[in-house]
TrEMBL record:
Gene Ontology terms: biological process: calcium-ion regulated exocytosis
InterPro entries per record: C2_dom, C2_domain_sf
SMART domains: C2
Gene3D superfamilies referenced in this protein's UniProt entry, alphabetically: C2 domain (2.60.40.150)
Molecular function in Gene Ontology: calcium ion binding; calcium-dependent phospholipid binding; clathrin binding; phosphatidylserine binding; SNARE binding
SUPFAM superfamilies in alphabetical order: C2 domain (Calcium/lipid-binding domain, CaLB) (SSF49562)
Protein name: C2 domain-containing protein
Amino acid sequence: RLLSELDDIDKESSLASVSILLCHQATYNKLEVTVQKACNLPRIGMGGQPSTYATVQLFKEDSVDKKDIVVKRNSRDPVFKEMVEFDVNIDANCPLSRYSLVISLIHKAGIVGRDEILGHVIFSISSPQKSAAEHWKFICDTPHQHLEQSHSLVDPDELLNSNESSST
């Protein structure tokens, strides 16, 4: 019984997460996205230490702008502290709330093999992640204010399965 309780505690504390700092610089039509750090990333391969990079994608209607964050090698808790900026042309007809932001953490495979998606955070008003939806709403409603929060990563398979079950 004690072992099963310890397993439950270990599962709860092993949820992968990423800390993100967002700020909408409305005066300059910029969205600043800083990927601070990730925690508790899953073990990968023989050594167990993933080499991780992030992709940051900004979606607006039928267009997407994508930027990559540098690879951090051999760490389940990589520290990135890297900012990317996106141009956002905001007006009454197209507020920031009509945009969506997706941050994906990806294990960089070696010479042989394919990169593996570790998880996503989806920032939008209709995000399936409550913390990310609230973070996005704050950024949309309060320009020039920085807000950093940690968010659990959504497993890409869970996201696909929930979309398939909701569409049937």
